[in-house]
Amino acid sequence: MVKILANDGIDPKAQAKLEDLGYEVETTKVPQENLIEQLNTEEYQVLLVRSATKVNADVFESCKGLKLIGRAGVGLDNIDLDSAKSHNVKVFNTPSSSSIAVAELVMTNMFSLSRKVFQSNRKMPSEGSEHFSTLKKSFKGSELRGKTLGVIGFGRIGKALASYALGIGMNVLAHDRSLKGEQEILIPLMDQQIKLQVSISSFEEVLAKSDYISFHVPKQSNGSALIDKRHFSTMKKTVFLINTARGGVIEEFDLLDALDRGEIAGAALDVFENEPNPNEALLKHPKISVTPHIGAATTEAQARIGEEIIDNITAFFG
Q: What integer pLDDT is reported at residue 75 of this predicted model?
């Protein structure tokens, strides 16, 4: 029997289906420091992770029984791909399952930032009763329709986001190092689809012209940030940045400095450099809306991820 450790969890329906197919699935979380011992003791052949569990070179070197690693999500930066290849362990991810969920979280953040909903929610519990009228005057926002969204990284998630933004009347600028020319975007409307074209722009143009900038790129291979102190001065002072991709895409200390200096208007962060122990200065900053890496955390996305995992496992083991 093939044994599977879903160390960061799995959709219950997917677990039940795998078990019906004859696989043994364990979902009890194994701490990182005990991972190698547990994989060997229980003779797991498949390890499923999200972003929390790190599958480093030591795991591949020590766990000879591992045959398959699955990442329930898009990025693979928590898996040592070179070690996987050298030890003949197949690695897969689920790139198509979470696009809608992540895109909707970005839209949620843009509405929240533009209408100052997150700031209002912080103030109302402590000041709403005594200073209602003052708070009402202080939270005047702006509308998204007619504004320009810049999308850095125009893969599945970036295009899904563009579809939502175009659907509410925003302008979209996109940048992707691997794309050129015009990209077709499909906007579902009732029982039909509207087709629109988005042109690929330069990185510099997206930074300079956007009212909102959303990042959908992997962590940089050299470990450096894509956005740091050099870039904030090229943006509008009214711009909002949204990062649902990976911690480190935006240099966090430079972001704090830019916000304090008034170089940009605000930010929304779903991902952090030091997860699961993010910098508290980011969590408490009055101009940053924060969430605990919930981009793919919808019932629907997790069900789709589960189905994609099943397809990969059954295809691998025949």
A: 82
Question: What confidence score (pLDDT) does residue 122 get?
Answer: 96
* Three-class secondary structure of residue 125 per DSSP: helix
The segments of the chain whose pLDDT lies below 70 read none
Helix (H, G, I), strand (E, B) or coil at 71: strand
From the list 31, 149, 49, 135, the residue with the least C-alpha distance to 89 is: 49
In angstroms, the CA 261 to CA 153 distance is 27
Q: Extract the tokens encoding 64.
A: 């000879």
Please tell me the predicted confidence (pLDDT) of residue 174: 98
3-95+299-317 and 99-290 have identical folds = yes
Cα separation, 46 vs 24, in Å, equals 10
3-95+299-317: CATH class: alpha beta
Instruction: Delimit the domains of the chain by residue range.
Output: 3-95+299-317, 99-290
| Beta strands 68-71; 90-93: pairing state | parallel
Q: Which residues pair with 46 in a beta bridge?
A: 4, 68
Confidence at residue 70, expressed as pLDDT on a 0 to 100 scale: 98
User: Per the residue annotation, which of 246, 251, 252, 273 is the catalytic one?
Assistant: 246
Per annotation, catalytic residue among 175, 216, 285, 293: 293
| Distance of alpha carbon 75 from alpha carbon 72, whole angstroms | 9
pLDDT of res. 221 = 76
Annotated catalytic residue 145: no
| Residue-wise burial string across 226-265, b where 16 or more C-beta atoms lie within 10 A, e elsewhere | bbeeebbeebbeebbbbbbbbbbbbbbebbbebbeeebbb
Q: Is 3.40.50.720 the CATH classification of the domain at 99-290?
A: yes
Global pTM reads 0.92
Query: Any idea of the CA torsion for 183, 264, 99, 88, to the nearest 10 degrees?
Result: 100
Active-site residue flag, 87: no
Q: Is 175 a catalytic residue?
A: no
